[in-house]
Design goal:
about 15% strand; alpha+beta; rod-shaped; 6 helices; about 350 residues
Amino acid sequence: MFPHHREREQPIFSTRAHVFQIDPATKRNWIPASKHAVTVSFFYDTHRNVYRIISVGGTKAFINCTVTPSMTYTKTSQKFGQWADSKANTVYGLGFATEQQLYQFSEKFKEVKDAARLAQEKSQDKELANTALTIAAPQDLSDELQSPLVMCVNGPEEKLFRSQSADITLSSEKERIKKMLSEGSICEINLESELFTLQDSNSKLVAALHEANANVAQWKKQLAAYQEETQRLREQVAELEAHGGQGPSDFLKDELTQSLEDLEALLKAKDEEIHILQNKKAEYLEMEHDRDEAILSLREMEMRNSELEGRIQNTEQDLSNSLEERDRMDSEIQRAIEILDVKIFDLNDLRQSLVKLINK
C-alpha cells in the first residue's frame, strides 16, 4: 500500500534555487546544501492529503519537508527566503536568481499552507494514518518496486531518442536551406556583376557617341567649307587656263593642285571616320540589347529569390514549431526525471525503514 500513495504524489509547482540549511551548531550561519541551483518542487499526495517540499539529487535529499499550518515563509532579502521545519529540527533557506521567482515561491507557500490547514481540520488523525501505511508497506514490495521504475525510465529514454532524431532532422533542414541560399546568392551576384559591366560599357559608349555626333557635325561643316573652297579653286584654275598667258605661273598652279589633293585626302579620311562611328553605333545598339536581356534575367532571379524566401520562411516556421515541440518534450522529460528522483529517494527511505523494522 505504501508505494501506491507515492504514485498519487504529483508536483504542483517547481522552481530552481540554491538550497541552504542553518548551521546546527551556531544556529546563525548558513551551510550550502547544493553546489548549484537545483529543482525545488511542491508535491501533493492525494492519498494522504498532505503537501511536501522536496528537492533531491540522485539518492540525496536536500529538502524533504511536510508543509504544516504552523510554518511561515519569511523573505529576508529581495532574492532570499527561509522557513523552519520543527520536525527536522532545522531551518531551510532558498536563494533565487530573480525577485520574481522568490515572489512566486512565497505565494505558492502561502497557498499550500492554507490547503494544509484545511486538510488538518478535516483529518486530525494524519500521523496515525501515516504509521498504518508504513506498517502495511512490506506486503507487495517485490512486485511494486519494479513496475513504476520501468515505466518512468522507458518514458524519458523514448522521448530522448525522439528529441535526438528531431535534432538530426533540423540540422539537415538547416544545411539544405543554407545550400539553397548560397546557390541563389551566387547566381544573383554574377548577374549583378554582368549588369554593372554592361552599364559601365553603355555609359562609355553613350559618351563616345555623343562626342562623335558633335565631331561629325563639325566635320560636315568643315567638309562643306572644303568643298566650296575646292570648287572655287577649280573655277579659278579653269578661268586661268582659259585666259592662257594672263594666268598665274606654273608654280601657282602646282600649289593649287596640291591644295586640292590635300583637301580630297582629308575628305576621304573624314568619310572613313564617319563610317567607323556608324559601326560603333551598331555595336552600341547591340550592347543595349544585351543589357535588356541582363535586366530581364535579373528580374527572373529576383522572383526566384522571393520564392526561396517564402520557402525559407515556411521552413523557419516549421523549425520554430519543431523547437517548441522539443522544448515541450524536454520539459516533460525533466518533470519525469524529477518524479523519478523523488520515487528513488522514497524507495531508499522505504528500504531503510524496512531494514530498521527487520532489525527490531
